[in-house]
Design brief:
heterodimer, A: 113 residues, mainly beta, seven-stranded mixed beta sheet, four-stranded antiparallel beta sheet, B: 110 residues, five-stranded antiparallel beta sheet, globular
Amino acid sequence: DGGITQSPKYLFRKEGQNVTLSCEQNLNHDAMYWYRQDPGQGLRLIYYSQIVNDFQKGDIAEGYSVSREKKESFPLTVTSAQKNPTAFYLCASIQPTGANVLTFGAGSRLTVL
Amino acid sequence: QQQVKQSPQSLIVQKGGISIINCAYENTAFDYFPWYQQFPGKGPALLIAIRPDVSEKKEGRFTISFNKSAKQFSLHIMDSQPGDSATYFCAASRGNQFYFGTGTSLTVIP
């Protein structure tokens, strides 16, 4: 089945450490996104990528970095510069044409100890 | 600035009742308005969507009502069931840019 796989599902980090969240899709989608979800704040865009080797900052990019070396993969690094990283992180992708259907992965929950 | 405003933040409905969630947007360039359903610990999943040239769309117990002049749209869940208990997000998009509401936590009481 096609879909988006995020890993790990749960991750614990000590303050001052960088962590990388994986996002892999086999939907042949061009555009990929990272969102952060906090209670009562909805989904906030961190980074997005329309094509390989290209990505743009979203509304809350500070303290995060991404890469897009392959169409299928869009990893997110939460750096030590992110002051409040505890959150639920969602990766998504969209079909290249047509119905504008944004498909989400199951999410990764990061907790900073 | 919040591009899409959603209310209420939480909603409790009796089984069999109607659940109504409202959203408003500012940018008239938006051309696609989806609703997503999210269960705890899962990613959001597309529930139903509408384009601005249509005033209403119905899929089973779920209906979107769209008022272009008021820049508002709403989700109606008829005959609400305990299994509908989830968080619902409205969104507005133009091309590949999506803007989400803050979510509504729906609880359907048996």
